[in-house]
Task: inverse folding
């Protein structure tokens, strides 16, 4: 478990399908993060203090 | 065994971490060679039981209680069982990943997909964990308030337990302390029995997935998401994989690792359904849970219906839920930070050799405990929001889990088979749809009836 002394796995070679999937994931993140922030702020505002 | 060998002017640190793990492994191998299956399982159990009971945390138990108070015994009873089956499918992959690669989840994402996704996973985990840890201390405070314990005392007590368990610097001791505390999650079972439920109604709900009071409304979708978020969350993936590695589990231990996970899911499902059943009298007696601000309100409101002892068990269960989750969630953050920083990350390591790891445990629980003591901290909406946020952030985490579990270059023969991919793929799609549904009702609140 001593991460400092271990040889890392090489980075995975990504095929075209995986590249598209990861870009879709980026899109999901771009859409989901503001929504999560908005939902969180809304939840805070609507919480009885 | 000496931790360090000291000589004038310098300190030579032999590998305490490896030595302690080797000692644990020797006991496992002895149990295996002596054909003592129960003892072998006792030694190897831990990550699965802890991850499942750790996820039966403060916000989760509040979500189950809110579900019981809002919908009673009906659709959600079998739905909770389904969510724990989903959790088992997901977590079983982490056991194989940990055993095959001997690496934590954050480490694997970083190495196989590069720093962008590595840091994203870290950020995803850290934000979710910080918010969730805050709600764990809210649960501890709320449960203790039922017994008249002042908030600072309750929060300090919870903090002390988390820090004391880490202080042993021994994975096995930390794990057993957490498991002993996690057993108290079953306090919700007697609390449910005090509610004198109609068992034919419970059995009917299991078979028919009904009744569903009020049909599909925005509130129903929100509780549906909260219940999924109460069972399947990103920290669980990171925690169990790292714990499997820290425990030193090997290929031969896979059956026990799977059984550990299944047992944890079964016990946690029983406790979750018990919480729903214990809270169901609130629906029958038309007590609205919408204004409840935490576990103390539930325990107090339930007292006339499940009695003093039942309500006390409910409140004690809330304290347990918060403490155990604070231990496991802070551990998942610490493992991930150690992995990404390529620093030592083990409960067997000395403080000096694993500073970032131990600092992360201390820092995350300190911040959460401090926030909870701020007057007028938001409560129930925050706890439910945490589960919903976890659901939305779960889709990317699950996608990486599936990609890694299919990566034959690192998984070898333990890579996902057809069944795991079908089930895992279905879970990813289901969770992505639920996330999208939540997005839709957030942006367009009039889409579904209230």
Result:
């Amino acid at each position: 478990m001593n991460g400092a002394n271990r040889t890392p796995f090489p980075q995975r070679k990504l095929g075209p399908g995986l590249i598209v999937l990861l870009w879709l994931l980026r899109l999901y993140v771009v859409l989901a993060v503001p929504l999560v922030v908005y939902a969180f702020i809304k939840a805070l505002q609507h919480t009885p203090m | 065994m000496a931790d360090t060998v000291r000589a004038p002017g310098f300190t030579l640190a032999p590998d305490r971490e490896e030595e302690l793990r080797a000692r644990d492994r020797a006991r496992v191998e002895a149990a295996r060679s002596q054909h003592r299956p129960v003892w072998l399982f006792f030694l190897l159990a831990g990550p699965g039981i802890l991850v499942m009971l750790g996820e039966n945390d403060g916000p989760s138990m509040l979500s189950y209680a809110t579900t019981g108070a809002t919908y009673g015994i009906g659709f959600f009873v079998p739905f909770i069982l389904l969510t724990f089956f989903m959790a088992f499918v997901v977590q079983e992959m982490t056991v194989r990943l940990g055993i095959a690669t001997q690496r934590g989840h954050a480490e694997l994402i970083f190495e196989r997909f590069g720093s962008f996704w590595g840091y994203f996973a870290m950020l995803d985990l850290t934000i979710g964990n910080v918010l969730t840890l805050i709600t764990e201390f809210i649960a501890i405070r709320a449960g203790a308030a039922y017994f008249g314990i002042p908030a600072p005392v309750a929060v300090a007590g919870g903090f002390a337990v988390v820090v004391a368990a880490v202080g042993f610097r021994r994975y096995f001791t930390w794990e057993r302390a957490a498991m002993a505390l996690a057993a108290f999650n079953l306090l919700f079972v007697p609390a449910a029995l005090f509610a004198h439920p109609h068992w034919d109604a419970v059995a009917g709900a299991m078979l028919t997935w009904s009744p569903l009071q009020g049909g599909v409304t925005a509130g129903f979708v929100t509780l549906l998401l909260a219940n999924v978020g109460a069972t399947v969350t990103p920290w669980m993936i990171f925690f169990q994989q790292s714990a499997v590695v820290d425990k030193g589990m090997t290929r031969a231990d896979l059956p026990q690792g799977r059984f550990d996970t299944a047992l944890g899911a079964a016990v946690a499902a029983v406790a979750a359904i018990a919480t729903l059943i214990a809270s169901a009298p609130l629906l029958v007696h038309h007590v609205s849970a919408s204004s409840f601000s935490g576990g103390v309100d539930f325990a107090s409101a339930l007292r006339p219906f499940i009695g003093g002892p039942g309500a006390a068990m409910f409140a004690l269960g809330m304290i347990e839920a918060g403490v155990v989750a604070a231990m496991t969630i802070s551990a998942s953050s610490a493992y991930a930070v150690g992995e990404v920083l390529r620093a030592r990350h083990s409960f067997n390591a000395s403080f000096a050799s694993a500073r970032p790891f131990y600092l992360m445990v201390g820092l995350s629980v300190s911040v959460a405990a401090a926030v909870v003591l701020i007057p007028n901290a938001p409560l129930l909406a925050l706890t439910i929001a945490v589960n919903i946020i976890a659901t939305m952030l779960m889709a990317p985490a699950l996608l990486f889990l599936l990609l890694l579990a299919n990566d034959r270059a690192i998984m070898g023969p333990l890579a996902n088979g057809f069944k795991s991919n079908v089930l895992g793929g279905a879970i990813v799609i289901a969770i992505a749809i639920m996330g999208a549904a939540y997005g839709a009702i957030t942006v367009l609140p009039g889409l579904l009836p209230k």
